Amino acid sequence: MLLLECPYCGVAGEETEFHGGGEAHLKRHGPESSDADFEGYLFHRENPKGVHLERWRHVNGCGKWFHAARCTRTLEVFGTYTAQCSEPPQEIRDKISAKRPGWTWREFS
Amino acid sequence: MSEPVTPLGGAVHEGAARVAEMPRRGMITLRGDLGDPAFSEAVAEVAGLALPGRGRVSAEGETRLGWMSPDELILMLPAPDVAAVLDRLAGALGGVHHLAVEVTDARALFAVSGEPAAVRESLAKLAPVDFSPAAFEPGTFRRSRLAQVPAAFWCEPDGSFGVMCFRSVAEYVFKALSVSAASDGRVGMF
User: Fold this and answer.
1) Per-residue confidence band for B15, with pLDDT thresholds at 50, 70 and 90
2) Could you tell me if residue A48 is inside a domain?
3) Residues B110, B20: contact at Cβ < 8 Å?
4) What residues in A contact B152, CB-CB < 8 Å?
């Protein structure tokens, strides 16, 4: 059971109040991009055992999308941040580093 | 003109707590930038209520102004006043980007009242929300799910609870609340 805090409502709710929206911070590659970039954008996803960044939606609540940093192994949630971030804020990175020194996820660490 | 009716015709269940469909009450959904004083002050003035903070509801007489999301409010008021209030909102919010729509007959409202512990217990059995008196005090407004459907709950100044859901699931919500508030269903949580 995940316990997530919606950064918009400030509500700490359990998993069934939210809905997972897949991997966070995907970079869109559309027309004019190379085939390899487009394939990566469409199909290549992280599947880590450990630190993971995801998108979630507060579906039975304010309805807003947000980001969550969590551990897929322990279900520990390091923090949540708004959908207006194109990368995890420093504060969230620090929280992850405190618990999982040396973590990396795609280009972030 | 046909006569507007509430979804369940004022259904009532008497159990450990009393679950009753509220008489028809006008509802207006408001969207806009709550951080913009041009929007929030105009809404507060027309509603005659202080703008509720995050997760709160303001109450005065029959009128309620609840915080739905960072850009949405719900205004409940006597049904006959809706048209006049929409007119006043349109006037007060002229030039401000906003949306104000009547949703009176698109939502269902229930009142759960009676012994405070039984009321909180009836709701706590159905929603993943902390209904303890310390966490959910009068004036708190929370959207979540009630069993399998989305719903909003708030605590009235007198300690009873209001429940709002979509009209299409009114019967489901009423039956779920009725079972949860059955007189032999107490668990003694609060």
Assistant:
1) very high
2) yes
3) yes
4) none
Q: Which of B104, B139, B170 is the last residue of a domain?
A: B104
Per-window interface: B 39-68 vs A, CB < 8 A: 54-55, 68
Residue ranges of the alpha helices (H) in chain B?
Answer: 37-47, 82-92, 116-124, 170-180
Q: B39 and B72 share a domain?
A: yes
In chain A, the number of structural domains is 1
User: ipTM value of the model?
Assistant: 0.88
Per-residue pLDDT of chain A (109 residues; tens, 9 = 90+): 899 999 999 999 999 999 999 999 999 998 999 999 999 999 999 999 999 999 999 999 999 999 999 999 999 999 999 999 999 999 999 999 999 999 999 999 8
Q: How many CB pairs under 8 A join A and B?
A: 37
* Sheet order of strands, B12-14 included: B12-14, B17-21, B107-114, B161-166, B149-155, B141-146
Looking at the structure, tell me whether residues B114 and B97 fall in a common domain. no
Q: Among B104, B125, B156, where does a domain finish?
A: B104
Taking only the tens place, the pLDDT of each residue in B125-167 is 999 999 999 999 999 999 999 999 999 999 999 999 999 999 9
Asked if the Cβ–Cβ distance from B144 to A10 is below 8 Å, we say: no
Q: Which of B34, B67, B69 to mutate to test the interface with A (most CBs of A within 10 A)?
A: B69
Does any CB of chain B come closer than 8 Å to the CB of residue A84?
Answer: no
- A16 close to B (CB below 8 A): yes
B93 and B139 assigned to the same domain: no
Q: In this structure, what token pair is assigned to residue B44? A: 């507060």
